[in-house]
Design a protein that fits this description.
This protein has a single domain (about 5-85), classed as Alpha-Beta Plaits. The chain contains three helices and three strands, in the order βαββαα. It has helices spanning about 15-25, 60-65, 75-85, and strands at about 5-10, 30-35, 50-55. A three-stranded antiparallel beta sheet has the order 1-3-2, covered by helices on one side. The chain is flat and about 50 Å long.
């Protein structure tokens, strides 16, 4: 069993859960750690919500978390039509 290390501290549980999901999707075991009474006392998250991984996975996790988001792909014809039908802008 390896020690756990913190690879990120964010301001809310939702962001931390998204990060954990992304790490898990890449095969890295990850968990959220915060002292917010199981989500009941949201104000306690002001201390930060931590994303934890095993020390062996920490370099890979940090690399994944530091990657910039993929470039936005242009909409195809069907997507543009749907956006217009729903009243949006394809801009």
């Amino acid at each position: 069993m390896t020690a756990t290390v913190c690879v990120a501290v964010v301001g809310d549980r939702a962001t931390a859960e998204l990060m954990v999901g992304m790490l898990r999707a890449h095969g890295i075991a990850a968990a959220v750690s915060t002292d917010d009474a199981g989500g009941v006392e949201v104000a306690l998250q002001a201390q930060g919500v931590r994303v934890l991984v095993g020390s062996d996975d920490a370099p890979s996790a940090r690399r994944l978390l530091d990657e910039p988001p993929a470039a936005k792909q242009p909409l195809n014809r069907l997507q543009r039509l749907l956006v217009r039908l729903l009243g949006g802008s394809t801009g």
